[in-house]
Design brief:
This protein has two domains: about 170 residues, Rossmann fold (3-Layer(aba) Sandwich); about 325 residues, no CATH class. The protein contains 15 helices and 19 strands. It has a six-stranded antiparallel beta barrel. A five-stranded parallel β-sheet has the order 2-1-3-4-5, with helices on both faces. The two termini are about 40 Å apart. The structure holds manganese (II) ion. The site of manganese (II) ion has 5 residues, from loops.
């Protein structure tokens, strides 16, 4: 079930009066058929809404302004069936405040070899009409997605679907509220950043709360509520013997249940979609929220540890983009390496907070001492990740801009059992290999924290970077470190200048 079903993408077809009413009527009908075809494909997470063909600068400006003010509309797909002189698009594109996809398609797939005449040629002009329209987007330095191919082609529909899902994430990003329980971990650099710039670029409202504000919610949770939630844990997880009623650690589990209820209520009351904690800021709480944070991630909330609000917001957006598709997503940290040259890999984990949406099997509910922070032993879910294609995504603040970094991964089974590891984990092979992948990530300034996802592919993050107009770099099977370092240096120059180029 996709909760974003009410959202829409508008389909806008460009033309002009030159062709006369009969041709324009045909253009209108063809567009409506494409819209119907996209909606019936079963691939798109939103409804595509047909808009009458635009033929003048005023009509173009009008539909672009209306798309911007329609709260259900999360983006526009534009198509040039015929030639639509692109000066007509300048005012509209400058006014357009929603993500834009340029579908460079043609109504008919094949040339009608034996029948083709000039009437046919004059109706099916996408091949050059799309180039005229593309020029003005480029001349305006307008970020957009270009998808090329026949509209019935599954690969084309899949690209449109990915872009629509990204637009759902972008829509979620606007006004996304992040609650920070406490501040950043002291002296840590990469989890810091410019929250004002993040609000300007991504729309995030990031606000800190004293842990005492959360404690007030914890104190109001009733014993009955805690007992009911614990029963849910017993159904969903393999609860360790010493965590069950009467066991040494049962009370520690109940405390996490109390936190979970309190944090959820706090976030519902404030309309928050993501949150952070910090084990250094726990005054009034006896444990670091572990199980509670894991459960809230599984419920769809973004999370960042040690005050990492950027990854918390990114996790929320990634969870929104991937609603209804296979594969989980979690807060993650590159924790410990296996540096055997014949079989190297990364063990990803965190002190506690990994989302059970990535679990391969039923998680175990356990309690262990934390080792740092001086607090009581926290309850947590312990499991290993599902295997498969995945990626780590992170967002850093470069001082003059944000940079989104993606590293693709193969998640594999751990090479041996991990009987003493008291936390959830994932074991992966970094692309292109550990040495080059980690070096590139480090040259790019990538965090130790990331959003790990088995659900999405790099296209989503590339699309998102275009929508937000922030830097995007990818480390994958094709990455060459020497070339990658040059890209980072070239980007430094580009991002110093690009503001002056924008229309
Ligand atoms: Mn951490």
């Amino acid at each position: 079930m996709i909760s974003s079903q009410k959202k829409t993408v508008w389909f806008i077809t460009g033309s002009q009066h030159l062709y006369g009413p009969a041709t324009l009527k045909q253009v209108d009908e063809d567009s409506a058929i494409i819209v119907q075809g996209l909606n019936n494909s079963g691939k798109l997470p939103v409804d595509v809404v047909f808009k009458p063909v635009v033929k003048t600068p005023d009509e173009i400006l009008d539909v672009c302004i209306k798309a911007g003010s329609d709260t259900d509309c999360i983006g526009v797909i534009t198509w040039m069936h015929t030639f639509s002189p692109a000066k007509m698009w300048i005012a509209g594109l400058k006014a357009l405040q929603k993500p834009c996809l340029h579908l460079h398609t043609q109504f008919n797939r094949d040339l009608p070899w034996s029948e083709i005449d000039m009437d046919y040629m004059n109706l099916h002009q996408s091949a050059h009409g799309g180039r005229e329209y593309g020029f003005i987007n480029t001349r305006l330095r307008k970020n957009r997605k270009v998808v090329v191919g026949h509209w019935k082609d599954e690969k084309v529909q899949e690209q449109i679907a990915v872009w629509c899902r990204t637009a759902i994430g972008w829509n979620e990003s606007q006004g996304l509220k992040v609650a920070r329980f406490g501040d950043n971990m002291r002296e840590v650099a990469v989890t810091e950043g410019d929250k004002v710039e993040a609000q300007i670029k991504f729309g995030w409202q990031v606000a800190a709360y004293g842990v005492g504000d959360l404690v007030a919610y914890v104190d109001k949770v009733t014993d009955d509520e805690v007992t009911a939630l614990y029963k849910e844990y017993e159904q969903l997880y393999d609860v360790a013997g010493n965590c069950k009623p009467g066991g040494e650690y049962h009370e520690n589990v109940l405390i996490q249940a109390r936190y979970e209820i309190a944090m959820k209520r706090f976030m519902e009351d404030g309309g928050f979609g993501a949150f952070t904690t910090n084990f250094e800021n726990l005054t009034g709480l006896s444990q670091l929220p572990g199980l509670a944070s894991q459960r809230l991630m599984a419920a769809g909330y973004g999370f960042g540890a040690e005050g990492d609000w950027k990854q918390a917001a990114m996790l929320r957006i990634i969870k929104k983009m991937s609603e209804g598709i296979k594969g989980g997503s979690s807060f993650m940290e590159d924790y410990t390496y296996h540096l055997d040259p014949a079989n190297e890999g990364v063990l990803g984990a965190h002190m506690l907070e990994i989302c059970p949406s990535i679990a391969a099997k039923k998680p175990r509910l356990e309690v262990h001492p934390l080792g740092i922070g001086g607090k009581d032993a926290p309850a947590r879910l312990v499991f290993e990740s599902e295997t498969g294609d995945a990626m780590n995504v992170t967002l850093i603040d470069m001082g003059n801009r944000f940079r989104l970094i993606v590293n693709t991964l193969d998640v594999i089974e751990p090479l041996a059992a991990l009987p003493k590891l008291p936390v959830a984990s994932a074991f992966w092979k970094t692309h292109p290999n550990l040495a080059d992948g980690a070096a590139a990530w480090i040259y790019a300034g990538g965090t130790h924290h990331s959003v790990f996802t088995l659900a999405l592919t790099p296209d989503y993050i590339e699309n998102l970077a275009e929508m937000a107009d922030v830097e995007f770099v990818i480390i994958d099977k094709n990455t060459n470190v020497t070339q990658f370092k040059k890209e980072l240096r070239w980007n430094e120059i580009y991002y110093m200048l690009n503001g002056s180029l924008k229309a």
